[in-house]
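hey so i finally got around to running the thing on that chain from the lab meeting. sorry it took forever, my laptop kept dying and i had to restart like 3 times. anyway pasting the input first so we r on the same page abt which one it is
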Amino acid sequence: MSVSIDVAWRSLNKYQEELCGDKVEILKTADSDIVILADGMGSGVRAAKESRMAVSLMEDFYKAGFEEQAIIDIINKLLILSSSDDIYSTLDLAMLDLVEGTARFIKIGAPHSYVVGERGMRKLKAGSLPMGILEEYEPIIYEAKLEPGDTIIMFTDGIADLEDKDDDLHDAVRRAARLRNATEAAETILTAARQASGGLAGDDMTVLAARITKPINKA
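ok and heres what got predicted. didnt touch it at all, straight out
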């Protein structure tokens, strides 16, 4: 069953930082739409450099047609070679096959995320260590069948850590996931996260919402 997606994201810099260390990219390939959410270690300019490097490498290798595991291994080794600069980044990927209506999630150091729909709220637990630390490791991988009305919620640890401890923020995630508009969902969660942090972000915050919809049949 083919589906389409409505994707939106919102970010907030850590208090007193000029740049957000998180990076979102949507990559379209012949087989799927790939949602990439990266979180550079730390915050500010340095973290932004880390996350953008990881995303740029990921995008280049996918476009070049490399296999998934080869891409992950190559990027990890390149980041390790840059370890003198302490370049580390988490990566959260959602590989969406819109023709088959399926998703493959790959977590590399990334926090938990959710798939919410009529079948309930499925929590995809946190992944392994960030890229650029260990020579060999296995990412955490999940697979899911997508249905119209499902919403994928992904966020960096600036929100995930708060959501683990704050019931109001967790309830906001539940409510937002059922909104029809991905932009409203992302804004609702970021607003709740800011409130949970006392109005000042203690870390970079990024939330991404991907709403699964039925494709429009054109005459």
